[in-house]
Amino acid sequence: MQTNLTLSSFTSVLPGKPDAPTLLTMGVNFLNISWQRIDPGDGKMISYTVFYINTKNQSKNKIEVMSGLHQRNLTVIISGLQPFTGYFVWVRAFSSIGFGHASENSSFVTGCKYT
């Protein structure tokens, strides 16, 4: 008995790479950041992950953003931060196909005014 087996391959397109997040507002212990929605590729957008690192002690944290994904500009408030401390912040998209590339990081300092 002979069985014919046909294999085919296809390439799925992952979500695009977001632009680096921008600062909307900030305070002594929070950062309100924004980034633009990206092309989800071949999948359905599930979430964005916002990563942030404290530059003093290198502690890494993340926030999952799962609502408002259809909006052109997305925002999140990162709260509970240390006063007058530097943070690196970046964003990565996740779709039903998988994770996209992370954005470039942005650097912000809580409690400092930017000009």
List its salient traits.
115 residues; mainly beta; three-stranded antiparallel β-sheet; 0% helix; single chain; Immunoglobulin-like
Can you tell me about this structure?
This protein has strands at 22-26, 30-36, 45-54, 60-65, 73-79, 86-95, 106-109. It has a 4-stranded antiparallel beta sheet, with no helix packed on it. The protein has a 3-stranded antiparallel beta sheet with strand order 1-2-5, with no helix packed on it. The chain starts with 21 loop residues before the first strand and ends in a 6-residue tail after the last strand. The chain has no helices and 7 strands. A hairpin with a 5-residue loop joins strand 3 (45-54) and strand 4 (60-65). The protein is an all-beta fold. The model has no long low-confidence stretch (mean pLDDT 90).
